[in-house]
Each structure stands twice: as structure tokens, then as C-alpha cells.
Write a structure and sequence with these properties.
Elements: H1 14-29, H2 34-37, H3 46-61, H4 65-73, H5 81-96, H6 101-112, H7 121-141, H8 146-150, H9 154-164, H10 168-175, E1 182-185, H11 192-201, E2 206-209, E3 213-216, E4 233-235, H12 242-247, E5 254-257, H13 264-272, E6 276-281, H14 284-297, E7 302-305, E8 320-326, H15 340-344, H16 347-364, E9 368-378, H17 387-396, E10 400-408, E11 417-424
Parallel strand pairs: 5-6, 5-8, 6-7, 8-9
Antiparallel strand pairs: 1-3, 1-4, 2-3, 9-11, 10-11
Helix pairs in contact: 1-3, 1-5, 1-6, 3-5, 4-7, 5-6, 5-7, 6-7, 9-10
């Protein structure tokens, strides 16, 4: 099989971007995360990389749509993953840019010539032309299938219906939309109003959100943000910014960020107050990103690679005034930024996450001082990981009090997050 690095297609051609996207999508379908799969594009020219990413994100966000259409056009699925992914990418381009249909078909066929010795070129040509002939009927048929219409796995939709009643379609629609680019101004460097003025001078429109955030009118590369590399600003969703605001440790506090990578919440805590902060993460590669973010922002913390549950391996015996437990979860609240989650997550995963979350809570609670605060956080919208998890914890820990609880659902201003602020009795 000819790989993406030795294709004969022109680097700036649509065929090239479809071919690259097909390789990425096949990796995701095989179980890789999108961030891992996108590493295939690291050596590509910026324009080719951006075009391929656009196709990959589009296909993954429109969960079930392409598969539904191919199911109507083909008697059985292809057993060649890259060609199947190529068809999904081409269908996405045909759906979203119908005015360029002939070029899309031509370029998809050219890309098929780079896969499996070109044996599927005729099939790709026939399927895509058949789609164009039946486009209206196929589009209408999407409404008859919940998965294709709402673009989520069936089990996921069922959980949202049970949990949110009449609100569930809005949550689904928000999760299918393109996310905003939200900034967090480094309070040690400037006020939000000051930075808003700098954005205006740079020709970038933005509006305030939350206490420290700004939503850009249009996403840009971080290099276009004034002072980004100097540490004046970071990219962080408005919902994620709630963590530091809710925990709000006083200056001089000893603080634990137990699942800290890549360090956005760690940095926000340190921007707001002078803290003795320990940041942990179990993944060494992701832990390096904490150090990189802190260095860029001019902040300092103790950073360790450790499993927070294995307390005896990293704790020095000194209790904490405040703990942030941003625990592993289904990530069901951030699918618009990570659409591969729809494809990788299984309903059985929820139970496993719940067990892990409970273990983290039980391991960290004894490390908190009497009167101290623990903020439990997820980027999930499923109650089992959120309110039900905290209800069960409060039964196990009679000395814990729930001071505050927030369930944020995906909307224009923020992704989906859950927060429960707990206080230990004196």
C-alpha cells in the first residue's frame, strides 16, 4: 500500500487532502485517537494538512451519516479501511460543497488510484456518481434513522434522552457544531479589557465570556494572538475556566492538581494566586505539556509523573488545603472538539470510568485538611459520572459536604462540564 508520504498526487490537490484524510480516518476506525492519527500529517505542507484535517473532522463529527449513505449504495461494506474512509471523506465534501461535485468525484477517483494498487478506482467512481443521482432521496432518508439524523451512537442518544428530557436535542446540536475559540487572559500580565484592546488593534474581534475569558469571532492560529508565546494569553474553553474560579484557593495554600495534563487548569490556578502547587499526571508525555505550558506563562509548580491513586508513591505526608480532581471520564461534553470520541467510546466504558472516578475520590479525600476543599470535575454530561458519583461518595464519606454543584451542557459559550465542590468537616 502506498502511504501518504510517497503519493504522486499534487501536494495542493483535493485528491491529496482526501487521501491524507482517508489514512487518518482509517487509523481512528482502528482505535487510535484523532490526535494520534493526525500525527500522520506532521510532515505535510500546512495547506495540505489543514485541508485533510477539515475533511477528517467533518466526517467524524457527522457520525453515522456517511455510513448510512454507503449502506444504501453498496451491497456490503468495503473490507479495505482506507478506501472506505476515502468514500466517507468524498461524501462529506459532496454534501458540504455540492457546487464542486464533478471535481470532488474526479479527485476522489485519483486518490483511490493511490490505494490497494488502484483496484477500487472503478468502485469509488461508481458509488460517488450513484450518490449524485440519488442525493435528494438519500438526504431525505437520513431523517428516518436516529443515528444518521442526530449523528450520535444510539446508546448515547438514549442516555441523553433519559437524563435531559426535552433539552437533549439542544445538547446534540451543540455537540455537532464547530467549537468556538476561547481565550483566558493571564491575570498576572494584563486585565481582560487590556487584552481585548490588543485584539482589536490586531484586527481580531472578540467578546467577553465568564470572568476571565474572551470568545473570538473567528478562530485563528495561536501565532496570530498578541503575546501568546510571551504568556499573555492561553486557549481554554469557557467551561474549563470554571474549575479555578470555583476552587479559588487562597494565596499561600498547598494545592494538588491530581490529573493535571495538559496543564490548563493548573496554570489558571497559578495565575489567580501564589500557591504551593503539586501537579500530577499518569502519562509522561502529557505531563511534559504541563511543564511547557507553565514555562510559556512564566509560572512555577512541582510537576510529577504519578498515578494519583497510588498515594504512597508520591505523597510526602503533608495535607492539602485544596484539591482539584479533574478525573478521567467519557469526555461526552467535549465531542465538538474531539469528534473521534463518538467513534471510540463504548457504552460499557461508562462503568469503567465510574469505578476509576470513585477510586480517585476515595484515595484523595484523606489527603485533604479538615475544612479543606476538593473540586471534583469531569467533561461529561452523563449523570452516572457526575451527580450520581458524588451522591455515592457522600454516602461513603459522612464528613464530606457538597457546597456547590454545576452541570454545564454544551452551548455557544462553553463545552459540557460538571463540577462538585466538596468541603471536609473540621
Amino acid at each position: 500500500m502506498r502511504g501518504p508520504s510517497n503519493s504522486t498526487l499534487a501536494a495542493d490537490s483535493l485528491g491529496r487532502s482526501l487521501l491524507l484524510a482517508a489514512h487518518v480516518l482509517a487509523k481512528v476506525q482502528a482505535g487510535k485517537s484523532l490526535s494520534e492519527a493526525l500525527l500522520l500529517l506532521s510532515g505535510e505542507p500546512p495547506a495540505a494538512r489543514a485541508a485533510a484535517q477539515d475533511v477528517a473532522y467533518g466526517v467524524l463529527r457527522r457520525y453515522g451519516v456517511g455510513e448510512f449513505i454507503l449502506g444504501r449504495l453498496m451491497s456490503k461494506p468495503l473490507t479495505h479501511p482506507e478506501t472506505q474512509a476515502l468514500l466517507l471523506g468524498a461524501l462529506y465534501r459532496l454534501e458540504t460543497r455540492p457546487d464542486s461535485s464533478p471535481m470532488v468525484v474526479d479527485q476522489a477517483v485519483a486518490a483511490a488510484g493511490e490505494l490497494a494498487g488502484g483496484v477500487f478506482k472503478g468502485l469509488v467512481n461508481g458509488v460517488l456518481r450513484n450518490y449524485l443521482r440519488q442525493r435528494d432521496a438519500l438526504t431525505a432518508a437520513l431523517a428516518t434513522d436516529d443515528v444518521a439524523h442526530y449523528q450520535y451512537p444510539r446508546w448515547w442518544l438514549a442516555r441523553l434522552r433519559r437524563a435531559y428530557g426535552e433539552r437533549w436535542p439542544d445538547i446534540v446540536a451543540a455537540g455537532n457544531s464547530a467549537p468556538p475559540m476561547t481565550l483566558r487572559v493571564n491575570a498576572r500580565r494584563a486585565t481582560r479589557d487590556d487584552y481585548l484592546a490588543r485584539l482589536k488593534t490586531a484586527g481580531l474581534g472578540a467578546a467577553p465570556v465568564g470572568l476571565d475569558g474572551l470568545i473570538l469571532e473567528h478562530p485563528v492560529a495561536v501565532g496570530a494572538l498578541p503575546g501568546f508565546f510571551a504568556g499573555d494569553v492561553s486557549v481554554q474553553d469557557g467551561g474549563a475556566q470554571r474549575a479555578a474560579q470555583l476552587l479559588a484557593p487562597a494565596s499561600g495554600s498547598r494545592v494538588l492538581d491530581a490529573c493535571a495534563a495538559p496543564g490548563g487548569k493548573t496554570a489558571h490556578l497559578l495565575e489567580a494566586a501564589d500557591l504551593d502547587l503539586l501537579a500530577l499526571d499518569i502519562d509522561a508525555g502529557r505531563t511534559r505539556r504541563i511543564d511547557e505550558n507553565l514555562q510559556r506563562l512564566g509560572l512555577s509548580a512541582t510537576v510529577k509523573v504519578a498515578d494519583c491513586v497510588e498515594v504512597e508513591r508520591w505523597w510526602d505526608g503533608r495535607p492539602f488545603d485544596a484539591i482539584l480532581a479533574d478525573v478521567p471520564c467519557s469526555a461526552s461534553g467535549v465531542v465538538r472538539r474531539h469528534p473521534d470520541i463518538k467513534h471510540l467510546r463504548r457504552e460499557s466504558d461508562i462503568r469503567n470510568f465510574v469505578h476509576t472516578q470513585a477510586a480517585i475520590l476515595d484515595a484523595l479525600w484523606p489527603l485533604l485538611k479538615p475544612g479543606g476543599k476538593l473540586l471534583y470535575a469531569t467533561c461529561s454530561v452523563f449523570p452516572e459520572e457526575n451527580s450520581a458519583q458524588i451522591d455515592a461518595f457522600l454516602v461513603r464519606q459522612t464528613g464530606a459536604e457538597r457546597v456547590l454543584e454545576e452541570q454545564l451542557v454544551p452551548q455557544q459559550e462553553n463545552d459540557g462540564f460538571y463540577y462538585a465542590l466538596l468541603r471536609k468537616a473540621l
